[in-house]
Known about the structure:
Elements lengths: L1 H12 L12 E8 L5 H8 L2 E5 L6 E7 L5 H14 L14 E7 L6 E2 L24 H14 L25 H5 L8 E6 L19 E2 L16 H10 L15 E6 L7 H8 L8 E4 L1 E2 L12 H13 L7 E5 L21 E7 L17 E4 L7 E4 L6 E5 L2 H18 L5 H11 L11 E2 L5 E2 L10 H9 L7 E5 L3 E6 L6 E8 L1 H6 L2 E15 L5 E6 L5 E5 L11 E8 L9 E9 L7 E14 L15 H10 L1 H9 L11 H5 L11 E3 L20 H5 L4 H16 L11 H29 L14 H7 L11 H4 L16 H9 L9 H7 L8 H8 L2
Parallel strand pairs: 6-8, 6-9, 7-8, 9-11, 11-12, 12-13
Antiparallel strand pairs: 1-3, 1-4, 2-3, 5-10, 14-15, 16-17, 18-26, 19-26, 20-25, 20-27, 21-24, 21-26, 22-23, 22-25
Helix pairs in contact: 6-9, 7-8, 9-11, 10-11
EC number: 3.4.21.61
Protein name: Pheromone processing endoprotease
Keywords: Hydrolase
Amino acid sequence: MRTAVLLQLLAATASWALSKRDYDSYDYYAVHLDQRASPEDLATHLGFQLDGQIGELQHHYLLKAPKTDDDLLHGAIQDLKSKRRKRQLGTGGYHILDGVLLNQKQERRKKLFKREEALERDLEGTVWSHRADSDMPVDSKVQEGLDLAKALGIKDPIFQDQWHLFNHVETGHDLNVSAVWAQGITGKNSTVCIVDDGLDMDSDDLKDNYFAAGSYDFNDQVDDPKPRLSDDRHGTRCAGEVAAVRNDVCGVGVAYDSKVAGVRILSALISDADEATAMNYAYQENQIYSCSWGPPDDGRSMEAPGILIKRAMVTGVQKGRQGRGSIYVFAIGNGAANDDNCNFDGYTNSIYSVSVGGIDRKGLHPYYSEKCSAQLVVTYSSGSGDAIHTTDVGKDSCYSNHGGTSAAGPLVAGVYALMLEVRPDLTWRDIQWLTVLTAIPLDDEPSDWQDTPLGVKFSHQFGYGKIDAWRIVEAAKNWTNVKPQAWYYSPWLHVRKEIPQGDTGLTASFEVTEAMLNKANLGRLEHVTVTMNVEHTRRGDLSVELRSPTGIISHIATNRRNDEFNGGYVDWNFMSVAHWGESGIGRWTIVVKDTNVNEHSGKFTDWRLRLWGESMDPAIQKLLPLPDDHDDDDHDAETTSAAVGTTSVDVPTQTGSPAGNPSDHITRPVNNKVSSTTVLSSPTSTSTTTAATPVEPAPTDDNIDDHEEEKPAASATAAPGHSNFLPSPFPTFGVSKHTQIWIYGALALIATFCTSLTVWYILTRRRRQKNARDEYEFEMLDEEDDDEGGRGAANGSGMNGAKGKRRAGELYDAFAEGSEDEDVFSLGDEDEEDDRYRDEERRSAEGEARGSEERGRGRT
Ligand SMILES: *[C@@H]1O[C@H](CO)[C@@H](O)[C@H](O)[C@H]1NC(C)=O
Ligand SMILES: *[C@@H]1O[C@H](CO)[C@@H](O)[C@H](O)[C@H]1NC(C)=O
Ligand SMILES: *[C@@H]1O[C@H](CO)[C@@H](O)[C@H](O)[C@H]1NC(C)=O
């Protein structure tokens, strides 16, 4: 066991030289191979060349072959299957192609959009000032700012304009970082990687902190991510927010003695394999990845990172930063005015990313910042007549109009850099815990603050509140690391009911028992995810809430007026951080609503609850397998047994949805406990926990320090509710809770062992079937058999197979005026009208519009 871990670590630290891709002359195939298949042998068999491992993904390789329209590897696999079916080949023997667990022909696609949002400008180009005359500096604060600069030796000319660092107008509205700096904590030994459109390493304000070894340009395939296009300015501005040097140029970064690296991916089309490599680039040295981009924030897109990128993020949190986990910070998105919600963005709603929204210099919610249940924290950005002042591209250029959630994310990355200077041993989850416990609630409306059992407040608009550098660094100093991550997955829960229109919702619930969580070794919750299938002829009409046993409500999906997609939710993962610290025990309820009474209607097919959190016993806790590990079994069966393959075609699918995954649904165990699928009237009225009261001060340092002690308290709170739902068959043995946990832990161990045996038996016997922990993404090879490219787009994995072509180097400003958005996305797309329905089934984003045609053809 230990040796295996060591070997893994060794392999993880071996760095793979990046070979240059030549996408104009070659096709690239990403493959995931099982232990038996050597990449060299596979390349030889196919007549391809081996291009190397994909970033840090073990057993994942890129193969290259001269360019053709066909997917040669897919063709070869189909060929083999068909020969086996016709018995031209023995079915038993191992073939090198059987070792191919995943095959993805790579395409470079532009799909990621910067999340900047500048303030309006007048015709002369000067920024509109909406600031009222009453916004006058507070004299005493001005003096305090000058004294601070003097004490710290800050001579940077625009430091006094950097209100986000020290605000002498709206006092208190800043990062509260000065007392941290005064302790000499300035980010030394911390490294932030700006994943963006470049970083001007020659800027006098950045060069001393530039970390070349952690930097790479994936667009132009050179070492230094120098901004090369006229609008490659975003990354440099973000870098300045984090690590602008304390000198006589512009201002300073939050962590002005930290190192900053740049990884350039936004300036041209990029393939999934390259993006996956970028997300793990130099992941032992780069500690924090700051990502101010994502799918379009148009209120219509529903896109998640492709499977390689998902695996890269899991690999990052498991192996990056010497196993403590890479920290991914994501800007939440600027689509609020389009009704967009960051739960429709698979990057921001990943449990592996810290999602950061914006507030303005007055602590108000700016019109652009999205709300969602996956939002962890907010910090300052543009609005109320000012924006973030930072470094710009050029030798000594400054910028005063950096905004949108793009500008918020890097500030949190900078605060984390300060925290890591003090506590480099914090894991990726410690950092999320500290953020939850130290963020400060704000009192701007919408005041949907809920008091959570953890003793903090959560709002969909502001997450847990605004980050406070001093509070989080102080709390970090004495923080006890959380135990490893554990998880509990419910079975697939079938509902298959029409969703009523109007204010009533369709409700389904699932009871989580203490025994289930004991068995899962899950002590207390952090993230909660819900995977859902809902058929609907207009996706934007739907909304979904999740209620925990303690009554906390997560609005995991909200209506989106622009979202016309005809196909509902397909195996989509929604995420909530609102249940942080709950025990998880008791009845979880999901309410699906279709509030628009119109001709569009739908059906709630099924759902699955996943609880993630801190393990009870770290000694027995395993690492999460990479997404889709169990599908490996499935794939093996598929390629070796034609008989089973037919079964999945013959059995009618339950979903009837345009983009489903039949075999996945067939084998989901039907859980009879999906009790009482009932229609509740006006469910919102039951939300007794929603606090309309003024915001209380955030938790004191005492309850931060005592976080370990809160666990029993939290469980106790849940207990009465629990016994209402479940007259527990589990005796207490008249012993203390801890002893009970111990006893049940031991029983759980035995149960786990027996279950493993059973599972092993079932898997062996029925390899074709998918296990309850299966992920949908891995059906690629099967899917292609049935319906080329027609699947997956809506479930977010559509990005995997997309073959959209875009003009290289073309940059879209996703955040131009709303009307321009439409133009931009429909640009040059004459057949969009004719193609509308198929298009919409095939893509989750307008950004892939042009791809769908080619996709259909290309995969034959
Ligand atoms: C800001 O930092 C100071 C220390 O300089 C601290 O006393 C204060 O509590 C912090 N502000 C908040 C709101 O926590
Ligand atoms: C930075 O890291 C090095 C090596 O890990 C260590 O020796 C040094 O003390 C650290 N410096 C600070 C300021 O923490
Ligand atoms: C951290 O712990 C030490 C010793 O246990 C204590 O002296 C110190 O006050 C604590 N610091 C904070 C910020 O709680």
